[in-house]
Amino acid sequence: MPDGAAPVLDVRGLKTVFRTRGGEIHAVNSVSFHLKRGEVLGVVGESGSGKSVTMMSLIGLLPSPPAEIRGGEVMLGDRDLLKIDAEELRQVRGAKVGFVFQDPMTSLNPVFTVGMQIMEPLREHMGLDKQQAEARAVELLQLVGIPDAAKRLKSYPHQFSGGMRQRVMIAIALACNPDVLIADEPTTALDVTIQAQILELVKELRQKLGMAIIWITHDLGVIATVADRVMVMYGGQVVEHGPVKELFAFPRHPYTRALLKTIPSITGHREARLQVIEGQPPILNATPTACPFRARCPHAMEICSRENPARRAVDAAPLGHGHDVACHWSPPALHEAAHA
Ligand SMILES: Nc1ncnc2c1ncn2[C@@H]1O[C@H](COP(=O)(O)OP(=O)(O)OP(=O)(O)O)[C@@H](O)[C@H]1O
Ligand code: SF4
Ligand SMILES: [Mg+2]
């Protein structure tokens, strides 16, 4: 894909707040990222860092109240998803953006057959009649590697194994050939062999269908396997972002460095889950005016309490362009290497 190709999804300055009885929770603070056709963006960050809320904000899946989107733009092609009405957004969700949740049992309806659930978006958004929708549903189940697809259409979700249900969810998300597939920890509940099969499947689909994929995970091994770029979130912000090889080899943010330091080798690891880093996550009760990582950061300086660092491009990124970091500090060895 040419570097200059227009992004399919371009998110700028997204801000999401929850209004609760105990006060406001600033869950997403000026998050920006983009995605090009055929790209996989991996998203990592500890629990509560705002990964799911960011993605759900994009496509209007958060209940309001308590959620309130306070700012930003979510451009899908030339449409700002934050400006369209609820009905148009529902159409986008069914047809342009596919979403796979962590637990397929909560998103598959137990009282309808799997076939009915795959056919519904096909009939609604693609205007297919019953016969056409059925044929396409069989095709989709085959595509996600479910054997005996025509027969399995008549099964109910509980008659499938966890891995198979996850494949069904992917089939539903893919039904209308979306431009963007958002997968929020879709393999966490699955055993490693099934995880590996799903990852292979996603890589194949991205090649076959050219869709852009956002993959949220706690597993850095998964990121290394599927992602082109990585976005690291902390305290509702993007603290580092860049091409996967570059970021894993030359992490700049103290949080990313702490995550990666705990893992001896990323590639080849079947499972390299995020390690718990000492200290408490930040309290998100206001727009941060200081670096949210400062209480846990070994490199915190005076400026870190006064100024929340903006994202800045990393100069001379050794392995690729497009690496940026939100931090006042630069790792000395890397800084010298980059300027040698
Ligand atoms: N309905 C809600 N009401 C109030 N606060 C919420 C609500 N949903 C999420 N939050 C808060 O928003 C913040 C971000 O949550 P989010 O679910 O995006 O985290 P996450 O990065 O996806 O974590 P995990 O890895 O555990 O899935 C958290 O502080 C969470 O407590
Ligand atoms: S801005 Fe300061 S406190 Fe925050 S991560 Fe960088 S060095 Fe640490
Ligand atoms: Mg989440």
From TrEMBL:
Protein name listed in UniProt: ABC transporter ATP-binding protein
PROSITE patterns the record matches: ABC_TRANSPORTER_1, ABC_TRANSPORTER_2
Cellular localisation: Cell inner membrane
Protein family (similarity comment): Belongs to the ABC transporter superfamily.
Organism encoding this protein: Tabrizicola oligotrophica
Alphabetized GO MF terms: ATP binding; ATP hydrolysis activity
InterPro entries, per database record: AAA+_ATPase, ABC_Ni/Peptide_Import, ABC_transporter-like_ATP-bd, ABC_transporter-like_CS, Oligopep_ABC_C, P-loop_NTPase
A GO term from the CC aspect: plasma membrane
One GO process term, biological-process aspect: transmembrane transport
